[in-house]
Amino acid sequence: MITQLLASGLALGSVYALLALSLVLIHKATDVVNFAQGEMAMFGTYACFALLTKTEFPLPVVMLAAVPLGILLGVATERITMGPLRSAPPVNALIATIGLWMIFHHTAGWIWGYDPVRFPSLFSPEPINILGARVAQNSLGIIAVSLLVMVLLYLFFEFTRMGIAMRAASQNRRAAQLMGVNVTRISLIAWGLATAVSVVCGLLIAPLTFLDFEMMLSVLLKAFAGAILGGFNSLPGAVVGCLVIGVVENLIAAYVSTAFKDTFAFGIIIVVLMFRPQGLFTREIVKKV
Amino acid sequence: MLEISDLSARYGAIAALDHVSLRVENEKVVSLLGSNGAGKSTLLGCITNSVSCRMQGSIRLDGKEILGLSTDAIISRGLVLVPEGRQLFNDLTVEENLRMGAYGFEHGRKWRTDLERVYALFPRLVERRRQVAATLSGGEQQMVAIGRAIMARPRMLLLDEPSLGLAPRLVREIFNLVREINGQGVTVMLVEQNARQALRIADFAYVLEKGRLMGSGPAPILAKDPHVVSAYLGEE
After folding, report:
1. I want to staple B195 with a disulfide (CB 3.0 to 4.6 A). Which of A148, A276, B161, B232 is the partner?
2. How do residues A175-188 score in pLDDT, each as one tens digit?
3. Sheet of B156-160, strands arranged across
4. What is the dihedral of CA A83, A89, A92, A97, to 10 degrees?
5. pLDDT band at A285 (very low <50, low <70, confident <90, very high)
6. What is the pTM of this model?
7. What pLDDT score does A234 carry?
8. Residue A165 and residue B100: Cβ atoms within 8 Å?
9. Facing B89 at nearest CB: one of A161, A175, A177
10. Which residues on A lie below 8 Å from B99 (Cβ)?
11. Do A165 and B90 touch (CB under 8 A)?
């Protein structure tokens, strides 16, 4: 029982982690907190579903198509909405992302309807035996796909020219510009990459919750909680934070009450922001004047 | 040769440079003296188009106008700035910092060859290559900053206060290294508050005061100029 709970908690946590990675990625690269990230994930998931039903491509192909589709969605959104706000104060961009939230939310409902749809899963819910414990296959599948995405992101940021440049620009924008880094391009790449990751997140969660235009609301909340737990500025921190949230949430739902599942995430956000705003895993941020 | 003529720059209503004209001959070390706020950093910023001021006048490199070009276009013409305060990427390793210096060229060139060249110049960085830049000493950080600029294969290095915050022994070491880089055929334009050290390694120097050029001459002669001595060199 406890192994099963842990596994499904980790699966849930890794789905949150993907969305949290998207949030942190954009925030690090552009200082913008993208409140529309969840809705963009939902929108992309609907688009994948449309691809699935219209073309009869097999599900794995559609899941792969999610990546270019997400990149396209992210890049287009950045170009149209964030580009013109580049020289404006960050709060303008933040408010614009709240506008984007509503636009994606209602456009999805308008195009694809307001009723939840069943979304096929790549993995069977049947449990298998691992080390004597029974673990659902879809939990393992979700963990595996998330892990793959995280490893790819890690390789990108650690070893590619563009990945290192993105880390450099997030630490010292002026110096990066002096190296010839095009900061506008960095913002585009961050949005494209982040949205691709979040669409994968949408595809993983949709089979569990049904495809629905409101499906990402609580996921976004948990992703925020996890990212804040991790300091909102660290990609590994966000992953660990979300895994903690996923596991604890599952345990609370099983042993205390399901009523506390969402309140718990809010509680985390408030407590962390009050007592340890730099997150549990990052050094204290000292702003130099 | 870099030729600046009649360059004026202003931040809003505040004039930072007022009709400045100077030239930097190839393979020389030219130093720019002046007190705080004289416009030295602004001048380097104007040359690399990395400050947000309005510019007027002309900056020509080998006869071709570069004023108005983007920073990366200027870097690719071989003018590379080592900014004041070093401006390293603190959480990146030494090697990643250096690699960033080659960012604009990485596609066409083997950046690892340039890396070996930097390590040859600064052997101390070899053992620090996997270390995060923030953990280095001030002198080592300055070496990384200069090394990072060398990764872009500069024809001309623009150094903004390289001695800032360094112990006297390290200052001398850094200046000797600058001379060594210059010996490899790289032109150097040096902005310094430490006028004594700057004049020691410079071939030629200009004096900037409140945005205006107030004097110029070969470094050894300027070092004996009464005004320069009283204003910038102080008592021996």
Report:
1. B232
2. 998 888 888 899 99
3. B79-82, B156-160, B187-192, B29-33, B204-209, B212-218
4. 60
5. very low
6. 0.85
7. 87
8. yes
9. A175
10. 161, 164
11. no
Q: How many CB pairs under 8 A join A and B?
A: 61
CB contact under 8 A, B83 and A175: yes
Chain A residues in contact with B72 (beta carbon < 8 A): 180, 182
Does B47 lie at the interface with A, CB-CB under 8 angstroms? no
Helices (DSSP H) in A113-160: which residue ranges? 137-159
B chain contacts of residue A168, beta-carbon cutoff 8 Å: 89, 92, 96-97, 100
Q: What is the pLDDT of residue A126?
A: 82
Map residue A214 onto helix, strand or coil.
coil
- ipTM of this predicted structure: 0.84
Higher pLDDT, A18 or A183: A18
CA nearest to B102 within chain A? A179
Residue B106 has a pLDDT of 65
Q: Which residues of chain B are modeled with pLDDT < 70?
A: 106-109, 235-236
A33 DSSP 8-state letter: -
Query: How many DSSP H helices and E strands does chain A contain?
Result: 11, 2
Region A232-238: mean pLDDT is 89
Are residues B101 and A168, on separate chains, in Cβ contact within 8 Å?
no
pLDDT range class, residue A107, cuts 50, 70, 90: very high
By CA distance, what is B154's nearest residue in A? A179
Write out chain A residues lying below 8 Å of B103, CB-based: 161, 165, 179-181
**How do residues B202-217 score in pLDDT, each as one tens digit?**
999 999 999 999 989 9
User: What residues contact A90, with CB distance under 8 A and at least 6 apart?
Assistant: A31, A32
- Please report, for chain A, the start and end positions of each structural domain, with discontinuous segments joined by +: 2-215
**Side-chain half-sphere CA neighbours of B113 within 13 A:** 7
What whole-number distance in Å separates Cα of residue A114 and Cα of residue A106?
9
> How many angstroms separate the Cα of B220 from the Cα of each of A235, A283, B29, B232?
55, 50, 13, 14
**Among all chains, which residue has been given the structure tokens 């995405």?**
A149
> In chain A, whose CA is at the least distance from the CA of B145?
A175
Nearest chain B Cα distance for residue A41, angstroms: 31
The rounded distance, in Å, linking the Cα atoms of B129 and B132 is 8
Predicted pLDDT at A283: 58
Q: Which of B90, B91, B101 sits opposite A179 (nearest CB)?
A: B101
pLDDT for the residue A289? 38
* Distance from C-alpha of B163 to C-alpha of A277, rounded to nearest angstrom: 37
pLDDT of res. B108: 62
Per the DSSP assignment, residues forming a β-bridge with B213 are B208
User: What pairing do the DSSP bridges indicate for beta strands B29-33 and B187-192?
Assistant: parallel
Phi (first) and psi of residue A105, to 5 degrees: -55, -55
Residue A286 has pLDDT above 50, yes or no: no
Tell if the CB–CB gap between B83 and A178 is shorter than 8 Å: yes
Residue of A nearest to B105 (CA): A180
Name the minimum distance, in Å, from the CA of A161 to any CA of chain B. Answer: 7
